[in-house]
Amino acid sequence: VGADRVIMGAFQKIEDNIRITVRLINVSDGAVIGTADATNKYSNLFALEDAIALDVTEKLNIKVTDAERADLRKFTPANNINAFELVAKATNAFNARDNDGAIEFCKRALEIDQDYIQAYLLMGNLYEQLGNFEEARNHYKKAVQLSETSKDKNLILAASFGLGKLLTRIGQLEEGLKLQNKALDIAKSLN
């Protein structure tokens, strides 16, 4: 792979408590360079991940600016761990071609977290595959709206591309191509 160091980790979950432990390992000789661990409530998993990430960057002597720390803190895949788990289950159902199950998991996630962009994206994709283009459009539009509010370029890219692809498919070429070009411009800016 060409890496000088790798991170190996483990977690333990007992009831609502979780402990994450990571080891930073030198690839050339297998020596442990450093370890980091943190314990918290499972419902605070995202904060726990942030703490571990910051601890590892310090052990690697990577300077993290205040702005980067703020970016790290504001990124969470979901506002609620239960919604996150439901979308993970929806993704598994989708990959197993259980679209109805995936839709149900997404609906439950959105009942918990109405601003969960990834759930709207997955719902848009699911409904598009099922041929329910109106529902697909509604979910993709909501994903576009929320992603632009979040200012997360990766999410804006995914939402714009999803909606653009759908609109092109249903014959709304001008608007669809405009959104796909927007996604392409964002993708170029990320490289």
Topology:
Elements (H helix, E strand, L loop, with lengths): L4 E10 L2 E10 L5 E10 L3 H15 L6 H9 L6 H15 L3 H14 L4 H13 L3 H18 L2 H17 L3 H18 L1
Antiparallel strand pairs: 1-2, 2-3
Helix pairs in contact: 3-4, 3-5, 4-5, 5-6, 5-7, 6-7, 7-8
Features:
3 strands; alpha+beta; three-stranded antiparallel sheet
Question: How does this model look, in words?
Answer:
The longest helix is centred in the last third of the chain and has 18 residues, at 133-150. The two termini are 20 Å apart. This protein has helices at residues 45-59, 66-74, 81-95, 99-112, 117-129, 133-150, 153-169, 173-190; strands at 5-14, 17-26, 32-41. The protein has a three-stranded antiparallel sheet with strand order 1-2-3, with helices on one face. With 191 residues, it is of the alpha+beta class. The model has no long low-confidence stretch (mean pLDDT 85). The chain is built from eight helices and three strands. Strand 1 and strand 2 (17-26) form a beta hairpin. Helix 3 packs antiparallel against helix 4, helix 3 packs parallel to helix 5 and helix 5 (117-129) runs parallel beside helix 7 (153-169).
Please report the distance between the alpha carbons of the first and last residues.
20 Å
Class from helix and strand fractions: alpha+beta
Low-confidence segments: none
Write down the overall geometry.
Answer: globular
> What is the H/E order?
EEEHHHHHHHH
Strand order of the largest sheet: 1-2-3
Radius of gyration equals 20 Å
Please, how many helices? 8
Strand content: 15-25%
